[in-house]
What does this fold into?
Amino acid sequence: MQKIYSGKTKDVFTLEDGNILLKFKDTVTGSDGNIDSGGNEVIGEVAGKGGSSFHLTLYFFELLQKAGIPTHFVAVGPEDNTIIVKAARSYGLEVICREKAWGSFVRRYAKYIEEGTPLPSLVEFTIKDDERGDPLITKEAVVALGIASLKAVEYMEKTAQTITALLKADLAKKNLELIDIKFEFGEVNGKPLLIDEISGDSMRVVRDGRVLLQNELAEAVLS
It folds into this structure.
């Protein structure tokens, strides 16, 4: 096993069989010292957060599997808070599905919208580029730049909305409200599918008017 990448919230290793091992970490992202799953800066650690992300990812991937939505998940890893996944070519994009205006969306469009305003499962694409602040990119530009084919872009948009609706309904059963969620997609054997994770690091969920922290979300969902 060889480490090939150390990300903000996960370490990535290659395995002898060609698969990839993801290890979830206790690090949290945010800005100005405040934890925010939409942040690009690591601001510290929270004990148990890696375990929360691991267990939530397993929970949500199982939900998608039952719904027939393909992911790169293979199995639980041999170490604590690890999963084994198929090696995929990432598109290098974040695909964000928004149910309500929040965070960066409000900062961009505050002239036109207030925080908490409902949105129609609005999908946005951003480039994963911390140095440039993960800039927005249009679907047409994704295709024009050769980042992904039109077919893959349409798949990502439709699948992001389908998964969001599925998770939103599941969370609502627990009196939790999904505000927004970001996905990463890639290609395995030339076909697009969901990769990376689905956890408190990739979504905002509200209960009683407050966005839950990762450990709080895991407790609310898994208890």
In short: The chain is about 30% helix and 35% strand. The two ends are 33 Å apart (CA to CA).
